[in-house]
Structures are given as C-alpha cells and as structure tokens.
Amino acid sequence: MSFLTLDHVSHHYFSAKNYTKALKDVSLSIKEGEFIALLGPSGCGKSTLLSIIAGIVEHTAGQVLLENEPIKPSDKAMGYMLQQDYLFPWKTIIQNVMIGPKIHGTTNAAIRQKAEALLEKVGLPEISESYPGALSGGMRQRVALVRTLLNDPKILLLDEPFSALDYQTKLKLENLVSATLKSYNKTAILVTHDIGEAIAMADRIFVMEANPGMISKIFEVPIELRQEAPFSVRKHPKYQMLFDKVWEELEDKEGTSAELKVVIEEDGTRNENG
Fold it and tell me: pLDDT tens-digit profile of 196-250?
C-alpha cells in the first residue's frame, strides 16, 4: 500500500503574458519508512515538487495523497529541513527547537524532556541554554533536525540540507540523519544535486529532467548499499557501478553537464558534488 502518492502532478507558473511548465505528469508512489532522492539539474522542478508535497504550493493538475487523503496546506504531517538552518539567533537552542510546539500550543514538561533527549541522541547534550552563534554549521543543522523531528512529522522533506557544509561535516551528518530516520522509521524525500549523496542515503533515486520537469528514470539502490551507513556506501564495490549509471542518465539530459561538478576523492574514484 502506498503511503505517499503523486498522480500525474503538473504545475505551471503564470505571468501576465504567458506561463512556464515547471512540472509535467509527475507520478510516484512511496512506501512508509522509505527514503527517496530527487536528483537532477537546476530548473527541473525538484524544490517545486517538494513544496507541492508540503502543501506550500498548490499544483495545477493531478493529485497528491498521503495515506489516501489529499494533503492540506495546514497539514502537520510534513517536516521541512532546508539548506539553511533558520535558527533565531536571539533564542536559546531549546527555544529554537521548541518553536513548533509553542506555535501549536502544546509546550509542556514532557515535550521539553523529549527535546532534550533528541538533542542528546544527535550528539548535542547540555547545549540547551546556548545560542546558535556558539555552534558550528554542522551542529546547527543537527539542531534543525531535532526541531523537525520534535513535531513527529510523517514525512521529512530535505531540500539540500548539507550543501552549505564542508565535505567532512556533510559526510558525518549524512550518517547521523540516515541512522536517526531509520530508528524512527521516518519516510523521507531528499532533494540534491549530489549523485554520491543520493546513492549513499536513498532506497530509490528519481532522476528528473528539465523544461518541463519530469521523472526520466528511477534507480533502485541495491540492498547491499542500503544496509550500510552512508559513509561506508561510498567504499562498496557496487557504489561506483550505480554512480556511473546515474551519471550517464544525467549526461543524456540537455544542460546537465554544465550543472555537474566532478570531485576526485582521496580514493581516486569519480564523484559528484554541488
């Protein structure tokens, strides 16, 4: 049974004189607890699709169903984690984490205890009364993850949450986020430009093309890779095989080669970042 269903979703951006087809006939089905990645060049509609799933943007055509019910703009089932952490600098860490419960009027001692436990789970004990300015970029993103999880969303929407971090911090956070979401059996959708990140974290990869945005191919990540932590996935023999297949699919799409940036890692393998 599908947990999240997109059925022939299209979206047009209208101006005074014409319109732009941002998405065309996007259909996909996601199981509960599944982690998928949306991969493709800039302008292919990845973030627009995420906003539609979140109920922030109303799609022009098609259906978006969560547990067979239409998603509503006010639905609390969605948790959003972005490239920037958007922590309020004048609020303490615990105050930032508990923004959601405060807005919804559900703040109490039990929620505070849960927030403290989540901070400890992600390796940030005893920082509740600190301020964001005292934290590194990676620590701030961990706080953002806790803030998102505290609201107990059914689906986490991750819009390039690691792209502003240095590479070492990014790899550590991939491991942390992957392990945390698996422990809570959370469904997640990751938007990324990074092929390696998509392979390391996802169960399936949806490659998109632009003008208009459509799903061009779906790659199933081998079970051997899905059973490993993201950092270890990059060392697995099957990683490079899948990487090359995804790379070739992206290379076939017009304009993709200008979007991709090759990185030669310490082990000499080709990877993609940015």
Answer: 999 999 999 999 998 889 999 999 999 999 999 999 999 999 999 999 999 999 8
How far is 274 from 269, CA to CA, in rounded Å? 16
- Tell whether 192 and 99 lie within a shared domain: no
Asked whether residue 82 is assigned to any structural domain, the reply reads no
Q: Tell me how far apart the alpha carbons of residues 23 and 46 are, in angstroms, rounded to a whole number.
A: 9
Domain of residue 168, residue span = 4-77+156-272
Instruction: Please spell the DSSP secondary structure of 31-43, one letter per residue.
Output: -TT-EEEEE--TT
CA contacts within 13 A on the Cβ side of 115? 26
- Residues 142 and 121: their CA atoms lie apart, in Å, by 10
- Cα(224)–Cα(203) distance, rounded to whole angstroms? 11
pTM metric for this prediction: 0.86
The count of domains in the chain is 2
Is there a domain that residue 124 lies in?
yes
